[in-house]
Amino acid sequence: MQEISKGANVSLTALSEDAGAVVVSLSWSSVSGAGDADVSVLLVDANGKVRSEDDFYFYNNPAAADGSVQLLGKTPTGNGDEDRIGVDLTAVPEGVERIVVAASQYGGARFGDLDDLRMTVADRSGEPLVGFSIQDAGVETAFIFGELYRRGEEWKFRAVGQGYETGLAGLATDFGIAVTEETEEAGQCAEAGEASDPGGAGDGSDAVVAMEKTPGAEQQAIAPEPAPAPAPAPEAEAAPAEPVAVPAQTRGRGPRTTTTKKKVTLPKVARSSLAENDAWRPARLFPVPSLKSDKEREVRATSVLLSVMAQVPEFGRRLTAAFGAPAGRMQTFTEVSLPHGDTPRRPDGVIRVERAGKLWTALVETKTNGNPLKPEQVQEYMDIAARRGYEAVITLSNDVALEGVPMVDVKIDGRRKHKVSLWHLSWAEVAHQAQMLIRHEGVGNAAHAWLLQELLEYLRHDQSGCHGFQNMGAAWVPVRKGIEDETLASDDPRAVEVVESWERLIRQVCLRLGGELGQKALPVQRIRRGSDPQARRAAAAERLCLDGRLTAELRIDGTSSVIAVTADLRTGKVRTCVDVPAPEGSYPLTTVKRLVRLLAEAPADLHVETLVEAGNGPRGTLERLRPEPGDLLPKGGAAPTGFRLSLIKGMGNTRGNTESGFIRSVDEAVDRFHQGVVAHLGPLEARAGRRG
Q1: How far is it, in rounded angstroms, from Cα 119 to Cα 604?
Q2: CA 381 to CA 296: how far, in whole Å?
Q3: What are the tens digits of pLDDT across the range 421-479?
Q4: Left, alpha or beta for 505 (phi > 0: left; psi -120 to 50: alpha)?
Q5: Please, which pLDDT band fits residue 659 given cuts at 50, 70 and 90?
Q6: What is the DSSP string of 144-189?
Q7: Which of 203, 252, 385, 462 keeps 20 to 30 A from 273, CA to CA?
Q8: Other Cβ atoms closer than 10 A to 280
């Protein structure tokens, strides 16, 4: 990640090939842990003004109708908070030149009372691109952290760090929002409607954003031109834009309306059952026990998914935005008959999105229960889509797509002017997105949350056939046996197949873990950007043949923890480990005692190894070390540089997802390690670990 200073700028395109959509994070902390601020986003034109009230986003107006901006909410971080904002740069209207990201405080608080003020920008995959820390906050009650702005065909980020002593009112005025002082009557109404919101903001924050536009003669006085820095100077002088009306503000906590509802999430723990006994099964919107054939499963799964996508806008947008679909009115269809030579073809589904009178259409081909996609079938749908002017074909199955490995081989006729994109979606990704919305980020209302919950229950049912990656492939058994009896040649192509299956498994583990935690979990690839994925997999296959190990690392967004996973096919063991750095300047004995206390709830069979600059440090199981933590101190007085925490579990041998299967054993190993070890590390942040 690149660090920049106040006033500097950097091209997002130069930092990532996947910067079409970014996640902006604002974070802060306080000694008491009670400090807080509210984020806001303003879309401004070439004149430095918002175009209308729809260009101002805050906690009570959290999402743009076109999907360009979405406030994702707060996440606690130690003594503070991190507020995240999703920005789809491909959906930003052409008239918007800059996206200003700000935050404001209330109740007399100042930004100088907060520590670690910081803004980061990550790409679509969650990889941090650029960071900016504010070091000079003082009496300001509002701050512009940074902005995203256009330069030709690319988007750039500028670190701004401009504060306002006049609070959100002063910031809003600079961007063309008319502000008037709060009257006594308005204050009484605000107090009646917001009795639970203590105090006013003061210093300009107790203003009310006007509901009506002020006559032109007064607009210049109410909404002066913004300060010249930090905005890029326009090429031509333009007349100042009219201030716009936005909903009234109450009690100085930023603009709010009384009609907008908060996002709805469902609790992890279900309500107590009213059933007489455990044999009673709850009624479900999408029943599955009657499904007897693969065709029935495919038809039911397609209909269930597409109907929920159309009814829950946040969910439908999540699944289609990455495929180039616009944000708009969505309708979905199943078993549509389309002409194709002498025999019409019936794709499993059709998705149509309307925006500004234009239609975006995708054909959907679904497979369940581990059935593979048929290249000839997908090829027919690609040809139909090209002839009819459709934009995409989406394949959906339990398999997980890999970079550089096409799910199906299709031929594209280069003579056709209309190009059709081919995309793949895993059922594991569908379940992940549904869980993120209903457990962590929220949806528009309780009915939408209930629909997503019913969808999740359907996908998890044994008869649905929608369980994600479930099979290590035909090469798994011969490769495993070849490693056990040392007969596997180093150039055996089946080893590459196993490596690809391993990579799919790790990606699915990340999806499932991220859905449980509400944080994105991603595989770590320690390679140079732009390197050939096939060459990387070939090198991994060669290492597999030599030492019999499959290795991977995964990182949880928002932490420095890197969990290393090693499957040793020779010993039949799965090892999960993480390295914890030793705090600088602390006494070694104090450090090891603190580590053992943090691991009070960890499994007794956890292996702990002391890391030293040279050679090997002492090691032992947590059960043995708990009464004698001093046994972790290196001999000779050497200072420990860190500690390696490892759990070892027996590995399943079969290629499937049964109780004795390899996939199940890896899933359980990662779950046990995160829940039993990583989640208890607390202030000792885990760092990128070397693999054991």
Answers
A1: 40
A2: 21
A3: 999 999 999 999 999 999 888 887 889 999 999 999 999 998 899 988 888 989 999 99
A4: alpha
A5: low
A6: EEEEEEEETTEEEEEEEEEEETTHHHHHHHHTTB-EEEPPHHHHHH
A7: 462
A8: 10
Residue 181 corresponds to which tokens in the numbers above?
A: 């002082």
Select from 200, 118, 128 the least CA-distant residue to 159. 118
Q: Which two tokens stand for residue 103?
A: 């935050």
Q: Is-contact 361 351, C-beta < 8 A?
A: yes
Inform me whether the pLDDT recorded for 646 exceeds 50. yes
Cα separation, 676 vs 110, whole angstroms? 39
Pairing of strands 142-151, 9-11: unpaired
Q: What is the pLDDT of residues 363-398, one digit of tens each?
A: 999 999 888 999 999 999 999 999 899 999 999 999
pLDDT surpasses 90 at 660: no
CA distance 496 to 662: 17
Among candidate residues 82, 93, 90, 88, the one with its CA nearest the CA of residue 69: 88
Q: Residue 164 pLDDT > 80, yes or no?
A: yes
- Per the DSSP assignment, residues forming a β-bridge with 395 are 365, 424
In angstroms, the CA 552 to CA 564 distance is: 6
Residues linked to residue 53 through DSSP beta bridges, in sequence order = none
Q: Which has the closest alpha carbon to 474: 372, 568, 543?
A: 372
Please state, in angstroms and rounded to a whole number, the distance separating the CA atoms of residues 375 and 365.
11
Residue count of the chain: 692
Asked if 243 and 213 touch (Cβ cutoff 8 Å), the reply is yes
Range name among 203-207, 355-359, 663-667, 673-677 with the lowest pLDDT average: 203-207
CA atoms lying within 13 Å on the CB side of residue 650: 6
The bridge status of strand 549-556 relative to strand 573-581 is: unpaired
Q: Which two tokens stand for residue 291?
A: 């499904």
Angle, helices 446-460 vs 427-436, to 10°: value is 150
Q: Tell me the residue type at 652.
A: G
114-158 pLDDT, tens per residue? 888 899 998 877 788 999 999 888 888 899 999 999 988 889 999
As a whole number of Å, the CA-based R_g of the chain is 28
Amino acid residing at 399: D
Cβ atoms of 169 and 179 closer than 8 Å: yes
**Weakest-pLDDT range from 126-130, 213-217, 320-324:** 213-217
Q: Which two tokens stand for residue 41?
A: 């986003």
Residue 604 corresponds to which amino acid?
A
Q: Which pLDDT score, from 0 to 100, does residue 349 have?
A: 95
Q: Is the bond preceding residue 230 a cis peptide, omega within 30 degrees? A: yes
Mean pLDDT over the full length of the chain: 80
In 3-state terms, what secondary structure has residue 20? coil
